[in-house]
Amino acid sequence: FKGEIPVLNMQTDYQRPAVQSHKGASKNFVINKELTNKLNRLAKETGSTLYMVLLSAMNILLGKYTGQEDIVIGSPIAGRNHNDLTNIVGMFVNTLAMRNHPSSDKGFREFLKEVKENSLRAYDNQDIQFEELVEKLPVGRDISRNPLFDIMFVLQNTGVSEKNLDLEGLKLSLYDLENEIAKFDMTITAIEIDEEIYLNINYATTLYKESTIERLTNHFTSILEEISNNIDIKLKDINILSEKEEHQLLLEFNDTESDYPKDKTIQELFEKQVEKTPDNTAVVYEDKKLTYRELNEKANSLSKILRNKSVKPDSIVGIMVERSLEMIIGVLGILKAGGAYLPIAPDYPKERIKYMLENSGANILLTQSHLLEDISFEGQVIDLEDEEVYMKDKTNIENINKSNDLAYVIYTSGSTGKPKGVMVEHMSLNNYLNTLMEKYERKICSDDNCLSLANISFDVNVLEIFLPLIFGSKLILFNTKIALDVHKLVDTIIKEQVTFSYIPPTILKDVS
């Protein structure tokens, strides 16, 4: 092997366990006589073998599944090159690790030739024990995988030409043995009998469902049919999908159209809910709460201040506040004024806060006065704890937004460079929220109590805020300072009779 050994990144049904369990199951399928004869003719015409043809097809299949063009597959071989071993009963089995490159722009004839050459080179070096190769691997390799490869391919040369054998009154028949142990992620075993190819896929049940393996067998068969009909076909042109699967991908899976108010902004949807349930509790934080009417009035007052400061569609206004009622008022006030809000976590490093404000072009920052220490900002600052902010006209301000205007800008973590602002329009957010409602067993309504845990700068906070407020339920803000206290979280859920919440699994695992 030259260079880094590639890891096969197959999409699995279950998360790969930290340590292999070797629990397995098997799936059988048959390549019919007509296709088997075609494959044998193909092998003969190209000076290769049936094994090489099947191995090529398996490489192509794995390439299609993973998008990788550097693949290693294992294959057992009987290490009996020495004359003094030929008469010894039993198999001295070694394992070959064969690396091939099913690049999409290659023709199958060309790729089969490469597989043939690689196979012959591997046979020439079969005396090198597999363990010798493994010992050369880096220390601390991934113990959740087998060394060198995850997929094993086997073609059995048994010398058996018929499924049923009669030996002086004794009839022998093939019998499918259920193997509940999986040494590899998958082991594909093929055997040619009665001019048909019988295949068995032994697979790790901790990784794959039976339905996934069923699809894989169909896709493998499709590849065999394609190459047997056109040996010069480009690998990228080989179609593995059935007509039904093509219909699902092109039509059914893309039939995502749903009925939602495409021309409405988030603030309009909120105001519509205010009209329906003005006296219902909209938001709760500790011992403080606001009804839908009170929340709307405070946001209206703030919005008029912002509108007077020239906030208009696509204007970006920063909001840096701790978990509080003011956080919700501020977000709605910015939207009602016509702008897009930029959420900033108060505990962010000062350099990141400065960068976000400058990079976004925000010239107004809504905050709390005690958070401004050491923050360098040359724009206008509005203290959301100042009661003067809420003394303006409390009636709804005229909506100046269209549904394709910005609703908010949220910055990435910056783990791959400088943080980048992701801009989201009202229409996109509206579509997302309504889609979530369709996925739930029932829609959120005025009887629900929705708990918000996420930091304002996390994208999940967006749906935590707006799902309750546009569908009329109660939004309960959990105190960030005690957010990691599982017992207080449980107490809050019980006290507030929470019916909806997005809780990270890391927190749930500690709840008994």
Strand order of the largest sheet: 10-9-18-17-19
Please outline the major beta sheet: 5 strands, mixed
Question: Which segments are poorly predicted (pLDDT under 50) over 5 or more consecutive residues?
Answer: 83-92
**Oligomeric category:** single chain
Mean pLDDT: 86
Strand elements, count: 19
Q: What is the approximate shape? A: elongated
Q: Roughly how many Å is the radius of gyration? A: 32 Å
User: What class would the helix/strand composition place it in?
Assistant: alpha/beta
Please give the alpha-carbon distance between the first and last residues. 50 Å
Number of helices in the DSSP assignment:
14
- Percentage of residues in strands: 15-25%
Helical residue percent band: 25-40%
